Amino acid sequence: MNNEKNIVLTGFMGTGKTAVGEILAKRLQREFVDMDALIEEREQRSISRIFAEDGEQYFRAIERQLVRELANKQNMVIGTGGGAVLNPDNIRDFNRSGILICLNARPETILTRVQSQKHRPLLEDGEKAECIRSILEERKSVYASVPHQVDTDTLSRKEVTELILQIAGREN
Fold it and tell me: Is the whole-model pTM more than 0.70?
């Protein structure tokens, strides 16, 4: 795969964007950018603190700025935050500059993957399983609008990586 298009992984938290993105980037000898990690680095505070101190609207504004920046680069693997595709401009920019792929998993799988993590601001209030179901339902149509879909429920990271490579190969 010699094309310089970015490969952009999106989807709900716990679907494998970072884990698979790192493997994919290594396979393709590309830079991997985890958008949430980069925002935390630049802001010098966690996503949870950004949400608590400045609110989700502020976070979405800096996320939007980062999308614009990354969409103007090439030859990268990008893992978005789970809510990045809530803004249609982000979807448009990522589709223009790369291959956008949504990773999916059932709520039960997501809960198993994220239940011990403390850095999930959208899951800090209330019962995690119900929060996951509720947010997934709210975002269902947005995630479904992404051109390529990969279900990560029963697949290993390597198998997901292979499926993404097949999709990217067809797009080039």
Answer: yes
